[in-house]
Amino acid sequence: MEKWSLMTVTVLLALTVRWAVSLGSYSGAGKPPMYGDYEAQRHWQEITYNLPIRQWYFNTSDNDLLYWGLDYPPLTAYHSFVCAYIAKSINPDWVALHSSRGYESQPHKLFMRTTVFVADLLVYIPAVILYCSSLKETSAKKKASTCALCILLYPGLILIDHGHFQYPLSLGFALWGVLCLSHDWDLLGSVAFCLALNYKQMELYHSLPFFCYLLGKCFKKGLKGKGLVLLTKLAGTVVLSFAACWLPFGTDVEQIMQVLRRLFPIDRGLTINNYLFIFFQDKVANIWCSLSVLIKIKNVVSPQTQLRLSFAVTFLSLLPACIKLTVQPSLRGFKFALVSCALSFFLFSFQVHEKSILLVALPVCLIINEIPFMATWFLLVSTFSMLPLLLRDGLLLPYAVTMPAFLATCLASFSILDKTSAEDLQLKAFSLCLKGYVSWFKSFPRIVRTLFLLSLSLLAVLSLLSAAVPPPQSLPDLFPVSVSIVSCLHFLLFLVYFNVVILWDSKNSKSQKKIS
């Protein structure tokens, strides 16, 4: 009872913070003609309610794809339809075809914010609570609630979902998938991840760890016995899950192809200005945007060459973690591989949005109890990396409040500054390899703490400058570019760190014996 009363307080606190953030501005408020993501979600409700399914992804006189055309998988469209059905019963003007474009009112804002709250309460928050409650590492009752509190107070997700405006469903489904796999419910976990992937195609960031972990599990069981049975069941589950999600579009090949073209707009990315080198326009903290400050890559190589180059670098960067996970499948290795692979996709992919860092942040949240110091550091940097977007949306005050609040919560919950030894950072095996070669390794905890404090100071200074100081006229993008470069350098170091933990992880060999 005590455990669940603490969880109740945790959830109420998390909901209060979300409610406070939702009172502020949202993406594109009062900024015609395109407005922002808030209008995109409203427009999808308008389209899905008023047009037949066969027209949802096609450009027609009633569905201008250049004005927030649907570019997410079918589950997003179905969810928009459900929200639109409720909106229509409250006020038909909210989803009226054509005339509702750019609709803004306080009652409608309340409705839209409520739909995000409902998604949080039904999918994401229960998954967090159950995940933290099931952690074997949580020895005390208080640990589960403090872990849940830190995850639910992660500012990046709160500011994007309840400030900028976005639904947490794909991340929630992915978390349900991790939760199911942690209980050996492999088929349910596969269904949950299929739902995540069919809600947002960016869940491909997590697809390889799911695939490699389950495939490795089949190998360990033996592909001539139980392993083959499990592999067959998994394949059947995935096929049936996708078939159910795509059933309304499955009667026409052209329908399927058009949906796929909308989901993966490679050609649009190469030919239409709005999508050309999207990472350069949005100052995303990935490697291509950072390199473009020194080398104008788009002037050196063709878009097609850069597409192939980004694919090769992405593939090579995530290969070690995937091989290790397939050969030595373990839940711990699976969670760390989710982080490493998602971060590789974010850093090296061809088309990336700054919000995609949330796909890395989710699995980092899942290991905050194992490496609280590094997880807290990463989650702070990930929120900071979205600062230009948050400033555009008028979310400076929520950002300035939630960031220190999250840091204080982690400091109080995990005493993170006391957990910087090689063993605390899961680097003991790696440190033994370096002991004879690196003389300063004895000072490692002090060095790490110093770097952490310097990093936070840099983030605070750049945040203050971005918010309060006008940039020079000759360098209008000085602060957004600085934010992206600083964040990218952090992420590169984090990528190295997580891969070192994965490759030198001795705990994996112990936990994989349980699987086999």
UniProtKB/TrEMBL annotation:
Catalyzed chemical reaction(s): an alpha-D-Man-(1->2)-alpha-D-Man-(1->2)-alpha-D-Man-(1->3)-[alpha-D-Man-(1->2)-alpha-D-Man-(1->3)-[alpha-D-Man-(1->2)-alpha-D-Man-(1->6)]-alpha-D-Man-(1->6)]-beta-D-Man-(1->4)-beta-D-GlcNAc-(1->4)-alpha-D-GlcNAc-diphospho-di-trans,poly-cis-dolichol + a di-trans,poly-cis-dolichyl beta-D-glucosyl phosphate = an alpha-D-Glc-(1->3)-alpha-D-Man-(1->2)-alpha-D-Man-(1->2)-alpha-D-Man-(1->3)-[alpha-D-Man-(1->2)-alpha-D-Man-(1->3)-[alpha-D-Man-(1->2)-alpha-D-Man-(1->6)]-alpha-D-Man-(1->6)]-beta-D-Man-(1->4)-beta-D-GlcNAc-(1->4)-alpha-D-GlcNAc-diphospho-di-trans,poly-cis-dolichol + a di-trans,poly-cis-dolichyl phosphate + H(+)
Key words of the record: Endoplasmic reticulum, Glycosyltransferase, Membrane, Signal, Transferase, Transmembrane, Transmembrane helix
InterPro entries: Glyco_trans_ALG6/ALG8
Gene Ontology CC entries for this record: endoplasmic reticulum membrane
Molecular-function GO terms, alphabetical: dolichyl pyrophosphate Man9GlcNAc2 alpha-1,3-glucosyltransferase activity
Transmembrane segments: 110-132, 144-161, 173-197, 227-249, 333-350, 357-384, 396-417, 451-469, 481-504
Pathway in which the depicted protein is active: Protein modification; protein glycosylation
Subcellular location: Endoplasmic reticulum membrane
Enzyme Commission number: 2.4.1.-
Domain of life: Eukaryota
Stretch forming the signal peptide: 1-22
EC main group: transferase
Major subcellular site: endoplasmic reticulum
Pfam families to which the protein is assigned, alphabetical: Alg6_Alg8
Family from the record: Belongs to the ALG6/ALG8 glucosyltransferase family.
Main function: Dolichyl pyrophosphate Man9GlcNAc2 alpha-1,3-glucosyltransferase that operates in the biosynthetic pathway of dolichol-linked oligosaccharides, the glycan precursors employed in protein asparagine (N)-glycosylation. The assembly of dolichol-linked oligosaccharides begins on the cytosolic side of the endoplasmic reticulum membrane and finishes in its lumen. The sequential addition of sugars to dolichol pyrophosphate produces dolichol-linked oligosaccharides containing fourteen sugars, including two GlcNAcs, nine mannoses and three glucoses.
Name of the protein described by the UniProt record: Alpha-1,3-glucosyltransferase
Organism: Tachuris rubrigastra
Primary gene name: Alg6
